[in-house]
Amino acid sequence: MESMGRKFRRLLAEEDYVFTGGIYTPLDAQIAERVGLKAIYMSGYSVALANGWPDMGFLTMTEVARTAAMIAAAVQVPVIADADDGYGNALTTMRTVQEFIRSGVAGIHLEDQRFPKRCGHIAGKTVVSREEAVGKFRAAVDVRNRLDPDFVIIARTDAYGAVGGSLEEAIWR
Predict the structure, then answer these.
(1) Which residues are catalytic?
(2) DSSP H or E stretch at residue 23
(3) Which one of 26, 30, 60, 132 is at 20 to 30 Å from 46 when CA atoms are compared?
């Protein structure tokens, strides 16, 4: 049986683009699958708002991973989940990857914001140092390689829009 991570990687290799849309409940995921989406993105912004919170890190990793597990179980297409900043440092990022692998999603995206994070369109974002960002991404990849090499990890940077950020810094990251 093909893993969801492998299925998503195959989609990326075979398709010109993969439109995912943003969902936040199992019902949304089922509707997206029914209308023909080949993959789904579980939006952290939407999950936070659906739970009555702004997208600023109020939900815990376990709350978000549980939502991801319910969504992944509801559909037969790959789900990519927003795992914020890994919910802390490199050690907590390792646990985050482990829990999201267990959830059944195809992969996650991790960002380099400093806690408390802010949604992408909110001013005042700051990012962790290059060294800390690289350390977290390496920790995530190490866990992925050990537990499920097909699991997809997407590194996202907010360096361009961060306080003191630049295009050059975003490209480096």
Answers:
(1) 119
(2) strand 22-23
(3) 132
